[in-house]
């Protein structure tokens, strides 16, 4: 970056969750220097969460040079070194391999697996390439893992995959029914809007349905902590109560729906008593939630993966929508069933038919007229009628040898798919694997025969659609780095090579300009736009120019319209053959994998506040590990006491498919007999081996591949597991500050060592404040390991060298007979001697005081040898390091508790005083639910209370 270059600003869209926040990218020269929320974007009005507000840091030159894939690479042998290729060589090889596979085995021997983080234009090209040019429907995306049950639920009831609400409906709702969603963490900026609405209208009631007491529950008037997987029974029981109490709307049902009689018969036996027993709820709470839902002037449901990721996902979605139809809570301000998309462009992918059973513009593959319309638009003879393989089926088929070649773009199935043993077998058995990716560090890249560098956020151009059907422009602040190319351009180049082999002499189906990104993407988008003409998502009245002028807009916006539609079905007419919505009757089915004596705990998975998916982007920043610093298994304190484990003990979590070892963490918000592991912890961050040498493949290795028969979305939210003490007596902990340009490359180098232990984890950390005072860049790595016995000394030496704990700079203590080793590095920072790195092996008790000594950069005056001696005591009074609550300003729980003791008044007044003093919760707001919880827990000191009086 040249400081003489003029600063620039580029309006774009955040690449994380489905809220679709607008961002303003600040750049100078060839570097992105900052990011802030776009106040003109209607989705966020200038706000950003912890993840969005650090986007510029994940795109820094230091991160890019350590993580980015910047040139095509080929492996001649799986697991071997990768060799650089020119783009033409790489694409010629890919075209030849795919064409040969088609000619030898047919097009269905290919599998394409894409991502909800691709842009709509990227999606469209690959959809056309696979279903139009190759004549196969084997194209699916990771949206299958998060949104396909929502798609199926909407289509089964309302007739089309179209969320009928807008974010503005939060401001009009009298009852918010949040179910299967930790909105506070999964969609934080939408949750800020909910907080605002509750503050402005305290009479608005919020009901949260979730087995865990999440941060979302902190805002709730009523929490239904149902048993996992019992959602359908809950909704059926609520409908039973509505019928009994006369809370349905017979006139609306008669005028606008069909199928109600069959549903009434189905829920007849779902009495309050039976429902409460099955769901694990109090009858009184069930009745109150039902009353609020049915009798509120406007009820808005918000739901996400808790409903979708289930073997009954479609039934859960449809049963909730049934309640809206039965009470007429739809088509009015503040009244609708509102599915929240998980990824930034899961909606855009659905719009172009980016699932193996869909076609462009919400067309059905099973409809001959729809297939003919798409074939005519694309200029091909026909589109295959038989649905292709869904995500789970695709990788099972590859593991079975049916699919010979896999093309994976912008996603990490070796971390995110369930039943990782099958996924890895698929990647190993496939004859040709292409990974099209921006990051070279994902688990999936290790299996690629061909790696193709793609552009990430900050370099991409196109469009995305958020949860409320709002289309936003994505704009590039910088040109592609290295030899990276846009995903759509890679697809076009591949398609043109395949055309030369499969339909020689014919005009290209892909006449898009790959030299000019704006012209190319706009031409693709215009073709997509034409495919929507006359459809429920008609956008023929929109254009890039209009989006550039007016900003993000909601569909439908047909030609001749003057605005998009804020909410759907206001006239009570639905996109079904008879114009009526359909009640969906499906009996309650329990989770696919029930707990039993062998597997007595119910495992739930979900998100962390400051991390995203497999952490290929957020995992590059130590500061985003401040709130949840390490992988852990959360369980109820009563269960922890009954098992006889101390917090931090290593526990083996074993399902019917695999196992993982994790430290256990007491969590009062977790229900008894239920445990929780965040979905993000893959093999890149937590690893190890069983006694028989089988590798640990992360949390998703535990999850079943059982899927919903209608949506084919897997049951990623629940597995039955057994827990046991890991019994690994030899332990190791190491921490070291490293130069910012080496942290991530060092972590990559340590991956090989991680797999040599029975348990290991490696995560970055940072603490901006202490080392900023010493004029240092505060970045480092925390490495943990455990084993049945001490490993060879050479293994420990390699670990020390990787962490920069070189013998010439460090002091050592070693006792090979007892398996003990200690290393410490003391350096002068800002005129004071500070511990900047250490390793403890065999006896790790000193970590309790060495960790804050290093992380807080506290000066030490004692000789380093004294810190190394067995049984060494801390050189000064040392309290355990307090957990971080506010990532934006580095505010710990200890500091918050101390300040709250000085704050008096009402809870709102104390929160404002706290924020005024420490700034916590005043930037992105992600920590506000936790701050409110602390306000309730921490009482003011006697002196503060007296002063307030």
From TrEMBL:
Alphabetical keyword list: 4Fe-4S, Iron, Iron-sulfur, Metal-binding, Molybdenum, Nitrate assimilation, Oxidoreductase
Keyword S-adenosyl-L-methionine tagged: no
Coiled coil regions, renumbered to chain: none
Domain 4Fe-4S Mo/W bis-MGD-type: 7-63
SMART domains in UniProt: Molybdop_Fe4S4
Entry annotated with the keyword Iron: yes
Cofactor: Mo-bis(molybdopterin guanine dinucleotide); [4Fe-4S] cluster
Protein family per UniProt: Belongs to the prokaryotic molybdopterin-containing oxidoreductase family. NasA/NapA/NarB subfamily.
Protein name: Molybdopterin-dependent oxidoreductase
């Amino acid at each position: 970056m040249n400081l003489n270059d003029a600063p620039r600003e580029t309006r774009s869209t955040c690449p994380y969750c489905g809220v679709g926040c607008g961002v303003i990218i600040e750049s100078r020269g060839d570097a992105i220097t900052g990011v802030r929320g776009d106040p003109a974007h209607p989705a966020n009005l200038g706000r950003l969460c912890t993840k969005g507000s650090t986007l510029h840091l994940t795109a820094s030159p230091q991160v890019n040079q350590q993580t980015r894939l910047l040139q095509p690479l080929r492996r001649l042998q799986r697991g071997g070194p990768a060799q650089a290729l020119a783009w033409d060589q790489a694409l010629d090889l890919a075209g030849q391999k795919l064409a040969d596979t088609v000619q030898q085995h047919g097009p269905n021997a290919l599998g394409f697996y894409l991502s909800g983080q691709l842009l709509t234009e990227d999606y469209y090209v690959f959809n056309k390439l696979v279903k139009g040019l190759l004549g196969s429907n084997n194209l699916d995306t990771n949206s299958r893992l998060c949104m396909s049950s929502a798609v199926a639920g909407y289509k089964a009831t309302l007739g089309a995959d179209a969320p009928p609400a807008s974010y503005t409906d939060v401001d009009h709702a009298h009852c918010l029914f949040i179910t299967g969603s930790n909105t506070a963490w999964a969609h934080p900026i939408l949750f800020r809007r909910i907080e605002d609405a509750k503050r402005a209208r305290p009479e608005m009631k919020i009901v949260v349905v979730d087995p865990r007491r999440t941060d979302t529950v902190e805002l709730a008037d009523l929490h239904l902590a149902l048993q996992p997987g019992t959602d359908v029974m809950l909704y059926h029981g609520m409908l039973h109560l509505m019928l009994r109490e006369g809370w349905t709307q017979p006139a609306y049902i008669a005028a606008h729906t069909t199928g109600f009689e069959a549903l009434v018969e189905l829920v007849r036996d779902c009495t309050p008593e039976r429902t409460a027993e099955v769901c694990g709820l109090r009858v009184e709470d069930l009745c109150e939630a039902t009353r609020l839902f049915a009798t509120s002037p406007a009820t808005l449901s918000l739901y996400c993966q808790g409903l979708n990721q289930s073997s009954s996902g479609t039934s859960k979605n449809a049963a909730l929508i049934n309640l809206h139809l039965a009470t007429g809570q739809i088509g009015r301000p503040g009244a609708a069933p509102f599915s929240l998309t998980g990824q930034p462009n899961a909606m855009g992918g659905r719009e172009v038919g980016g699932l193996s059973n869909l076609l462009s513009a919400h067309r059905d593959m099973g409809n001959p007229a729809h297939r003919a319309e798409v074939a005519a638009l694309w200029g091909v003879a026909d589109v295959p009628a038989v649905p292709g393989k869904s995500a789970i089926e695709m990788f099972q088929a590859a593991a079975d040898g049916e699919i010979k070649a896999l093309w994976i773009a912008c996603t990490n199935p070796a971390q995110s798919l369930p039943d990782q043993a099958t996924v890895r077998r698929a990647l190993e058995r496939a004859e040709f694997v292409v990974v099209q990716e921006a990051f070279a560090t994902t688990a999936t890249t290790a299996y690629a025969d061909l790696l193709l560098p793609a552009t990430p956020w900050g370099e991409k151009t196109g469009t995305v659609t958020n949860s409320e059907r709002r289309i936003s422009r994505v704009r590039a602040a910088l040109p592609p780095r290295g030899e990276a190319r846009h995903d759509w351009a890679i697809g076009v180049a591949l398609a043109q090579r395949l055309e030369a082999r499969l339909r020689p002499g014919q005009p290209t189906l892909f006449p898009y300009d790959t030299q000019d990104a704006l012209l190319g993407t706009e031409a693709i988008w215009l073709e997509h736009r034409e495919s929507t003409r006359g459809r429920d998502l008609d956008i023929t009245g929109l254009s890039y120019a209009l989006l550039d002028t007016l900003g993000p807009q909601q569909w439908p916006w047909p030609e001749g319209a003057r605005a998009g539609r804020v909410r759907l079905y206001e006239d009570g007419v639905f996109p079904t053959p008879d114009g009526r919505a359909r009640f969906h009757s499906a009996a309650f089915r329990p989770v696919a994998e029930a707990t039993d004596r062998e597997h007595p705990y119910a495992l739930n998975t979900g998100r962390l506040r400051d991390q995203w998916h497999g952490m290929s982007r957020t995992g590059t920043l130590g500061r985003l590990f401040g709130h949840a610093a390490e992988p852990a298994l959360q369980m109820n304190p009563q269960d922890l006491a009954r098992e006889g484990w101390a917090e931090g003990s290593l526990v083996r979590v074993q399902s019917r498919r695999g196992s993982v070892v994790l430290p256990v963490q007491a969590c009062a918000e977790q229900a008894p007999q239920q445990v929780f592991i965040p979905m993000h912890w893959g093999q890149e961050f937590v690893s190890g081996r069983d006694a028989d040498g089988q590798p640990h493949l992360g949390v998703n290795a535990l999850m079943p591949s059982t899927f919903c028969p209608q949506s084919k979305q897997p049951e990623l939210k629940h597995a039955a597991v057994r827990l046991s003490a890991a019994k690994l007596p030899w332990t190791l902990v190491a921490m070291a500050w490293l130069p910012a340009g080496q942290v991530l490359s060092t972590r990559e180098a340590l991956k090989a060592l991680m797999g040599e232990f029975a348990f290991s984890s490696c995560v970055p950390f940072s603490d901006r404040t202490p080392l900023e005072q010493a004029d240092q860049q505060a970045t480092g790595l925390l490495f943990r390991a455990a084993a049945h016995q001490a490993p060879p000394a050479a293994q420990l030496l390699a670990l020390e060298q990787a962490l920069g704990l070189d013998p010439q700079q460090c002091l050592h203590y070693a006792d090979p007979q007892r398996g003990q080793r200690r290393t410490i590095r003391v350096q002068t920072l800002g005129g004071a001697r500070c511990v900047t790195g250490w390793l403890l092996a065999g006896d790790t008790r000193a970590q309790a005081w060495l960790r804050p000594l290093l992380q807080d950069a506290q000066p030490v005056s004692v000789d380093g040898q004294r810190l190394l001696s067995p049984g060494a005591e801390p050189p000064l009074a040392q309290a355990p390091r307090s957990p971080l609550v506010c990532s934006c300003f580095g505010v710990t729980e200890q500091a918050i508790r101390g300040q709250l003791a000085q704050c008096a008044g009402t809870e709102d007044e104390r929160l404002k005083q706290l924020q005024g003093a420490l700034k916590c919760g005043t930037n992105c707001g992600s920590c506000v639910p936790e701050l409110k919880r602390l306000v309730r827990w921490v009482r003011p000191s006697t002196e503060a209370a007296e002063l307030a009086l």
